Amino acid sequence: MEKVYIGTKIVAAEPMDEETFASQFHAGIGTGPATPVNRQGYKVRYRDGYTSWCPKEEFELANREITAQEKALFGIK
What we know:
Layout: E1 12-15, H1 18-24, E2 41-45, E3 51-55, H2 56-62, H3 68-73
Antiparallel strand pairs: 1-2, 2-3
């Protein structure tokens, strides 16, 4: 049975459109008839180094920039 979860993690991200991400990281993703519009979004890097792309609306609903105090708490420069 499907359950619903709330996930939390610290990620590094930068604004990047889908086509740019596809050309730099995953050739073929974000191009072709399945994605006729070059969507705005974010390149996201996780703690383990995994990198992915997320549409702008989804990213901004699920994430907020952390404060300097939060960075210090987690030992992030």
